[in-house]
Write a structure and sequence with these properties.
heterodimer; A: 392 residues; alpha+beta; Cytochrome-c3 Hydrogenase, chain B; three-stranded antiparallel beta sheet; 10 strands; 49% helix; B: 318 residues
Chain lengths: 392, 318
Amino acid sequence: MSCEIPFGPQHPALEEPINFMFKIEEERVIDVKPRLGYVHRGIEKIAESRNYQQLVYLSERICGICSFAHTLCYSQAVEELLGLEVPERAKFIRTILAEMERIQNHYLWLGLTAKEMGFETLFMYAWRDRETIIEMLDMISGKRVNYGVNTIGGVRRDIAESMIERIERSLEHLEKRAEYYTKVCTKDPSILKRTVGVGILRPREARALCAVGPTARASGIARDVRADEPYAAYGEIPFKVVTYRGCDVASRMYVRIDEIKESIRIIRYALKNMPEGPIRVKVPTRVPEGEAISRVEAPRGENLHFLKSNGTDKPERWKIRAPTLANLPSLCRMLIGVNLADVPVVIAGIDPCIACAERVALIDVKTKKREIWDGKDLWRYANEWYRRKYGF
Amino acid sequence: MVPEEIWILIEIFLFPGFLFLFSLAFFTEWLDRKIVAKFQNRYGPLYVGPKGILQPIADFIKLLSKEDITPRMADKVPFRLIPILLLTLAITPLFCIPIMGSKALIYFEGDLIVIMFIMSLIALLVFIGGWASTNLFGTIGSIRAGLQMFAYEIPMSLAMIGPAVSAGSLSVSKIVEWQISGVWNILIQPIGFAVLTVCLMAHLQRVPFDIPEAESEIVGGWLVEFSGKKLALIRLANDFELVLASSLMVSLFLGGPYGPWYISPVTYLAKFLLCVFILSNLRAAFARYRIDHLLAGAWKYLTPLALLQICLLKVWGI
């Protein structure tokens, strides 16, 4: 007997609305259809009516968790168009904040995945430890989530001498905790039972479906923009790309925990070798005509921003490809054959951020016609629909 | 002198009857929540009453006052009956548990069998409740509840039979009495105690065996359509089941209200709290298992272990 079970758009295991239609046979998933479009916000359209400085703040709000990665990606694209060289110190500060954000995100992920497994204690512990790094981010930037540190041509806030000691102390604590979580996640039988061999994505499939970030690295593919195409100060800092060959949720967990430790090493190195100097340069408001692509390794995977300028102070087109969108095909592959009880864990395994992934593209299911709508079309459609339905 | 009828009424309605049991149920829920919160680095209930001790009662009253929805597609009669039946069935066996002395309020040869039977009925009612709600998640939850019953039912019964074998009686009161003259059952049947604890966790549907509810997978499972008064009654029934589980552990394995020093309800309560502590501790320390893990584990390990315990009893001739 097979039956269809809806998963989302409202579901306790999902932080954001997305819908998966599962076809299940005796608790085993045999087919899955994802459906996006519940949190589309039209950011790319808004971008065409704002100037470049304002867009820094808009890009910060693409994602609530990896906000720094998005501003970094956007600023780099504008800087490339302007042909601007960012001061060395700013590059180091960007690296430090990006890595802090990675630590913050990975602890958040660990907690959420534990919650999907029904392990509430680990959830509470991971989020308590996440507080340490958030406090550090708060100390540097003045905010806990959207830091507002990046700007075109550098950063807005410096890391003072007095802060370094506090950061070092918190890093020490976090490293100890990361060791502890490694121990828990490799030893605890109930965690192992729920993660090992669950949600398999083979290396060949991962490559074919263009998986990015920790999802790809857990399938043994050493794909990391930080190493492949260094930006900010990553070219000068030695670090290793963490890969695991397990191809399952457990490997995704170990990759992330090891990345926390690697990030801590990167921050330590960067703090020690941070050069003196200015943290930003002045930039013109008008950007010359051209196109630029910028890539950043966000905590969830590769972030890609494409920017086309037309010589005014507003961009002509700004295209964002967030890591979740790149990982959705891999996710659908992973879900097939999985037990219904493991579905939340597998979905959590790619660290989905639905709001980042949403772009407007309407597909009429009956005619298979694909069209792109703007606000006016939507408005017209809504009016017509109500007229038809209720007759006014 | 006070006539005997009044004493009986006091026993049934005040102590150790309804009033005591209800307060114990609410207190147990509070204690359980507080202990788990402590393990998880949280505060737990805090505002209602001193240290939040009245929070379960406040929750109960709040749920009673909420809108009570019966889905249009649900099987109305079983859907409405199940919360009431669950509560009644959860309270009934508590009268067979000796709290004051060696004699429970109700005792007869074979009351242990009745308790087992009622516990199976509770599991069956859970299945029917989820099925009657006709919700997809509810249906899956109830199927899981049914499967879970197949997993823990046999080892649990075997573990409960162990003390009966050593005492030579199927009455809980007799088993308690036997433990005064001899030793506590936990000393001669440690495996049985462990098996019973694990099975009771599965019976109570607590983490790691909250598979039929599994909030993050099937949105609350069999409970998903119950709301308002029905949910309040079901939650109260859950509290009573927790009380029953701990009481069974106390009476069958820890010598009931008999301590090394004197007999009193205080000794009983001390042991009872210890058992609640064990159950809460286990709840905080695991991730949720999958239903196939539980079935395999129960038949591969729990059942043989329970059988082994009974064999050992016979071999030693205790």
